[in-house]
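Archive entry. Fields below.
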Amino acid sequence: MALNFNPSEDKYVVGGLVAAVAMLVAMYFGGQAGQIVFSASAVAFIGLYVLIGVQSSERRHDTNVFKLMIAGLWLILGVAFALLWHFHFQNPAYTDPTYWLGFPRATAVVVYLLWMPPALYLMFAYPYLFNTYIWDEEQVAEFRTVGSDEEGNK
Amino acid sequence: MIAVPEAVLAQVSTTETMNPLIVGVVAVYLLGIAAIGVWATGQTESTSDFLIAGKRFGIWAVAFAAFASIMSGFGFIGGPGLFYDGGYGFLWIAIVAPLAFPVSWFVLGKKMRLMAEVREIFTIPDAAVARFDSEAVRLLVSVSVLLGVISYLGVQFLAIAFVLQTVLGVSEVTALAIGLVVISIYTIGGGMIAGIFTDLIQGGIMVIGSVVVFLLALDTVNGFSAMNRELSSQIPELAGAFGAFPIMLGLTWYFLFLVGNSGQPHMAHKLYMLRDPKLLKWGAPIAALSYFAASLMMLALGVGMRSLVETGQFAELANPDNAAPIFLVEFTPAIVAGVVLAAAVGAVMSTSDAFINIGAANLARDIPESLGFEYASDRQELRAHRVATALIILVSVLLVYYVEILVGLLGVVGWGLFAAAIVPLLGIGLNWKGATTEGAIAAGVVALFGNLGLAIAVQFYGFSLPHGSATEALTLLVAIVVMIAVSLVTNTKARDDIDDDIERVIDS
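PREDICTED_STRUCTURE:
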């Protein structure tokens, strides 16, 4: 059976496969180590999934801008999860907790760090990169031609 | 200490105490939605109009429709209930969507819209078939989507009955009948044109209502700090980062709802409806920020209600799902309660109309085409979609009342079934040239039979995954692994074997 593998085209997908397998293993073993491995693998998978989605734009424009964008996302999520585990494992029963901005510290990390910062970063990265790297006038014309050819063939 | 009148220490029956102003606001809302349905019926002249609104909408309408259909009754009614029940553990679902929307936009936004540019594509299975050229793929995706649609609709219809029964003080059957008449008027006649217009209005009401109630709820409990200290002094774990839920459940929810967002047909389907692909640009922030604003209410209201109960200032709720309606009736002005309860009806209806439309397309288009049937004309196909819409509504209602066990079974797998079937095939398949037909079929089999098998094991045999992980996350992960692993050792419709127009979409 011939292997259908092209290293330059398949690197993100294979990375995603490794992260998915790591998540499955972590789900099976559980415990503190499993929880940490699962969260790290999930963060890795999310970034790789976005990179799979933009790899055609990355190749078309021969740019590293998307890798930098995902590095930023990994940094935000990595810091958030590191703080979450640090504070959660310090006081897993949440008895007499220390409060940050109205919440026990680990909960505050989820509310203030994990909720909107990564989302704001990525949601505004899309329009910021849109005209230069995701979509351009040349492509609009190209696909309108394909679309009208298809209509004509019906 | 929060000042709450002694009278409310007794459990209230909202059906008996509902203010006429609240009933009036909800009634006006329902009439308005029905009127849009009548108008949109006149605008719907083709199958394209009915299924993808003739690709006529701008980004505000499409992004609002995407967020409103994802929010659903689960978010507006079930969300506060789960916060009430499990404390901050529900954050692991509630915080996901604002990040999930841009992820979906990066992965699928451009590709899905371009697929509709190069082929006559109206449904999610249409896109899967265009990519993998396989009727087996169409059948697997269609059946998965149809089962998911029926499961969601059963739950949404129960939610419509619950909210309208609460607001109007009528029996459950009457409440359901009122909701179904309104929803039938605009889905059977107006298709997605009515769906998108009503979603835009419903989404706007959800955002405004949620922010107002969030502020009122925080004021009632004297802010997060006082609320959490009260809660923590009674049941510390409820104020914790994972609430009363197992940690692995929270983590697997986070993954399932984040990555699985791009596999939800009621979200992805909306991307076909943009009049110009360039309008995608601002869609992610609009959908994500709207969802964020609309989800604020469930956090403050659900946990706030629990804090009031734990500190003895309110009687324990018989049903956690009552947290939202009871809080609104007891602690907010009638006009606000009316608007937010109308928003709750809107949340349920916007999800329902999306699923009714997708289910009808499945019945009238995807499944017949996978069996080799072709329509003689577009007019005939449009008629078939209208009949299928009525049929989907009828079958879902009958299932709710006569095959309760099926709704209970499917109700837990809806999101997971969609995610496991669509993320590998479209999220990965439309972006990776190495994805093969064999990989897609294998992933489709895992999604369909894995989800159903696990749901049966959980419901009937008390099965649970180690450490409390979500079974739907397991099937999503296994479907992804199978899709990639099988594709790496097979070749059909991969790389040079991909049709030219589809290859241009993948390369775009």
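CURATOR_NOTE: Chain A touches chain B through 81 residues (CB under 8 Å).
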